[in-house]
Amino acid sequence: MSRAWSEKWAREGTARFVAAVAGLTDDQLREPSALGGWSRAHVVAHVARNADALVNLMQWARTGVETPMYASPRQRDDDIDRGAELPAAELRADLLRADERFATRVAEMPPEAWRAEVRTRQGRRIPGAEVLWMRSREVWVHQADLGTGITFAGFPEDFLVELIGDVMGALKGPGLRVEAAGRHWTTGAGTASVSGPPAAVAAWLTGRSAGADVEGEKPELPDWL
Question: Are 39 and 29 in contact (CB under 8 A)?
Fold first, then answer.
C-alpha cells in the first residue's frame, strides 16, 4: 500500500475516533467496551498510548537510535490502566495531545526515515512507513471496540480490503482461503474457504464478530495481534 493512502486513513480514522469519544458522556466512558475486561476509557487510553508508542518508532527511524514502542509490557499495561482512571475531560484532552504529537512527528519525518528499519512490539522488522498503517488499524478498528454501535460496515472499503490482506498475511494456524470484494487471499493449506462483504470478513478475521454474514466453513481463529 502507498504511504499516502496509509496517512490518509490514519488522519480520517483519527478524526472519526475523536468524534466518537467526544460524543460519549462521562458515565458512558466508564461503561464496558466491546473488549472483555476493558471500559471504553481503557480503549481511549490505549489508543492514546499507541500514538505515543508509534512516535517512538518514528524517532527510531529518524535518528537510528533504538527506541522501542514500550519500555516493557508491564509499563504498557500500567499506562493504559492509569489513563483509564483519568477524569473524562482529562482523558479526552490526553487523546487529543497524543494525536497531535503523532501528527507533528509524521510531518517532521524526512523521506529517508520512512525507509529505515525498526521493530514492532512483537519483534517484527518493518520500514518506518508502516507506522502509518499501524496507526490506521488502531483508530479504525477501535472505533468498533468502543461498543457504541459503530461497526465495520461504516468503514471505507479500500481500508477494509487492506485490513483483510494484513490479517491474512499474519495469520498462523488454520489453512484458510478468503474471498471479498472480488479478491482472494490464502494462508496455510487453504483447506477452509469463506467469503462475504469486506466489512463482514474483516470483522470476523479480527475477532470483532462471530461471522454471521460470512459464508463458508469458518475455522477457529487465533487472536489477532
Answer: yes
Separation CA 113–CA 10 (nearest Å) = 18
Could you tell me which of 177, 169, 187 has the C-alpha nearest to residue 215? 177
Q: For residue range 131-187, what is the model confidence (pLDDT) as tens digits?
A: 999 999 999 999 999 999 999 999 999 999 999 999 999 988 778 999 999 999 999
Q: What ranges in 85-156 are assigned the alpha helix state H?
A: 88-108, 130-145
Q: Which domains does the chain have, with CATH numbers?
A: 3-150 (1.20.120.450), 155-216 (3.30.1050.20)
Q: How many CB atoms lie within 10 A of CB 196?
A: 21
- The residues, any chain, with a CB within 8 Å of residue 76's CB and separated by 6 or more, are 49, 53, 69, 70, 121
CA-nearest of 2, 121, 9, 8 to 57 is: 121
Distance, CA of 49 to CA of 76 (rounded, Å): 8
Q: What is the largest CA-CA distance in the chain?
A: 50
pTM, whole model, 2 decimals? 0.96
Closest by CA position to 144, among listed 14, 49, 34, 32: 34
- Which residue carries 502507498 as its cell? 2
Dig out the grid coordinates for 10 from the structure: 490514519
Cell numbers placing 13: 480514522
Query: What's the rounded Cα separation, in Å, for the pair 138 and 201?
Result: 18
| CA separation for the pair 57, 65 (Å, rounded) | 10
For residue 90, the one-letter residue type is E
